[in-house]
Amino acid sequence: MKAPITTHVLDLEAGRPAADLAISLWRADQCLGRGTTDADGRVVQWDAPLAISAGDYRLVFDVAPWFAAQNRTSFYPEVTINFRVAATDEHYHVPLLLSAHGYSTYRGS
């Protein structure tokens, strides 16, 4: 079963999913869960059960160690995506398209 907030990371330079990338999910100053992307670059479940309420959240992608593990450097030590949950009965999928010198995100399905 998928968590109400999920993510997917794609390495645009390599043209493949970004496996083994550490990510944390936050609401205000509280860490709600941590995860590591699977072989397909996805986190569909966090290390703790997740119930959401309306409000602002953020995903923090720990990209510097991930790039370093591949003998690559990154301009960004981390990528933070802030987003808003409006309807708690909806699923929020927040993908990250990543390269060493840029990134993009959008609300997925």
From TrEMBL:
The chemistry this enzyme catalyses reads: 5-hydroxyisourate + H2O = 5-hydroxy-2-oxo-4-ureido-2,5-dihydro-1H-imidazole-5-carboxylate + H(+)
Q: What class of enzyme is it?
A: hydrolase
Q: Which GO terms describe its molecular function?
A: hydroxyisourate hydrolase activity
InterPro entries from the xrefs? Answer: Hydroxyisourate_hydrolase (IPR014306), Thyroxine_BS (IPR023418), Transthyretin/HIU_hydrolase (IPR000895), Transthyretin/HIU_hydrolase_d (IPR023416), Transthyretin/HIU_hydrolase_sf (IPR036817)
Q: What is one process in the GO biological process aspect for this record?
A: purine nucleobase metabolic process
Q: Which residues bind substrate?
A: 8, 42, 106
Keyword Glycoprotein appears in the UniProt entry = no
Listed EC numbers: 3.5.2.17
**What is the annotated role of this protein in its UniProt record?**
Catalyzes the hydrolysis of 5-hydroxyisourate (HIU) to 2-oxo-4-hydroxy-4-carboxy-5-ureidoimidazoline (OHCU).
Q: How does it assemble?
A: Homotetramer.
Q: What's the protein called, per UniProt?
A: 5-hydroxyisourate hydrolase
UniProt source species: Simiduia aestuariiviva
